[in-house]
Amino acid sequence: MTPEHPDRWSQATVHPDMWADPDDDPRNSDGPSPEGEIPTYDDYLADYRTTLLMKCDGLDADQLARRSVPPSTMSLLGLLRHLAEVERDWRTWIDGVPLDKLYGRRDADFDDVAADQAAVDAARADLAREQSLTDAALAEHPDPAERLAKDDITVRELMVHRIEEYARHCGHADLLRECVDGRVGQ
User: Fold this and answer.
1) CA–CA gap between residue 91 and residue 123 (Å, rounded)
2) Counted domains in the chain
3) What is the DSSP string of 112-143?
4) What's the rounded Cα separation, in Å, for the pair 81 and 95?
5) How far is CA 83 from the centre of its chain?
6) Is 0.85 topped by the overall pTM?
7) pLDDT tens digit string along 88-132?
8) Domain around 113
9) Is residue 86 included in any domain, yes or no?
């Protein structure tokens, strides 16, 4: 195994193409699916948020900051920072009040990533905080057809966009993680 091309591996034993065995997967839940449109969106969003964090678990600061697919500036740590910025931006969509960028200039979320544990801890805290604030802001708008401040977007469209954003970046995280240490699985 070379650092540039690690051997592919999975922790899962039941389904080797999965990230974790079903009994160990926090995304799996027993029981019926959620009732209603907003709870369904929230359920999918929660699973993608969990998936992103799972793809980052078990890596050190250097691995999280590694730009695994040159010349891209994308890294797993950059994804955490980017999604914190995106969550913050969605609040502007909800109430129309622009917020300053967390990491300064445009693209600093990816470009200014440092392989430092304090930066990793800050990014995780930023993401959790921004998710919580956006969730709380959206909870004030339970009608999926309600139109919000930015561009008269509906709550429904914003929720679908949030799911899409996390799903797309979880795909990036799959590839980044595989390049870092060879671990695969959905």
Assistant:
1) 18
2) 1
3) T----HHHHHHHHHHHHHHHHHHHHHHHT---
4) 22
5) 6
6) yes
7) 999 999 999 999 999 888 877 888 899 999 999 999 999 999 999
8) 22-26+45-181
9) yes
